[in-house]
Amino acid sequence: MSWTIADTALDSRFFLGTAAYPSPQIMLDAMRAAGAQVVTVGLKRQAAAGAHGGQPFFSMLRDLGCHLLPNTAGCHTAAEAISLAQMAREIFETSWIKLEVIGDEHTLQPDVFELVAAADALARDGFQVFPYCTDDLIVCQRLLDAGCPVLMPWAAPIGSGQGLIHLSALRTLRDRLPDVPLIVDAGIGSPMDAVQAMELGFDAVLLNSAVSRALDPVRMAQAFKLAIEAGRLAWEAGIMAEQDMAVATTPVSGRPFVLA
């Protein structure tokens, strides 16, 4: 399952967030069970804990040996997101940034205008921008024009667990952008949703709440790992097309066959 994103080779297609786990140890155990090679961290939320509160957490993430993907969660303007991204680059020594610019507090839907502006500025500043965006094709094309090497369209509002609510839009993105790495981000509620995303041909899944809020986050992380692998294998193998009518499995006329 080896693949490449932002000039980095990965074996896992499971990106996992680091927020809201019952304890740091459970978070670490879940990361290991997931086999995740990329983990996200909200710099703004950790910074709110104070200068000393975030450092042990950041050190613990470094010890995982995973690629850190800092995000700009909590930002509402391009300027705010750009400033936080520059801070993250200094702290984590990475040009990767998960760009979030929220436009609505109720749905946490991205402000696509500020998002594109921030993406353009950060890409020109040498960042590898992973934008959290809507499933709108034109917005996604504008983000690619701005220099983003990957797109991260939502499945549903963050933390809602609703699954893939706009299947046709996501399918259109995959069909129209066949060579662009696409990662479903936000709204995933169960391993079934992850399978569905991967069967559509998406390259990876990013989630947080569905694991961190589970009764057993470690086992749930393992369940998602298996689901993502199964969905990808199914897509690569070629999923049978749906038929309007029944199609006999074993032909009885018009075609020779041999029974073992």
Describe it:
The chain is α/β, with parallel strands linked by helices and 260 residues long. It has one domain (3-237): Aldolase class I (TIM Barrel, Alpha-Beta Barrel). The chain is 41% helix and 15% strand. The chain has helices at residues 24-34, 43-47, 54-63, 78-92, 112-124, 137-145, 167-176, 191-199, 209-212, 217-237, and strands spanning 3-5, 8-10, 14-17, 38-42, 67-71, 96-99, 128-133, 152-153, 183-185, 204-207. A five-stranded parallel β-sheet has the order 5-4-3-10-9. It has a three-stranded parallel β-sheet with strand order 6-7-8. A two-stranded antiparallel sheet has the order 1-2. The chain is globular. The chain starts with a strand and ends in a 23-residue tail after the last helix. Residues 48-53 have low confidence and may be disordered.
Brief overview:
The chain is an alpha/beta fold and 260 residues long. The protein contains 10 helices and 10 strands. The chain has a single domain (3-237), classed as TIM Barrel (Alpha-Beta Barrel).
Strand content: 15-25%
Count of helical regions: 10
Mind telling me the C-alpha Rg? 20 Å
The level-1 CATH class: Alpha Beta
Q: Provide the low-confidence segments as ranges.
A: 48-53
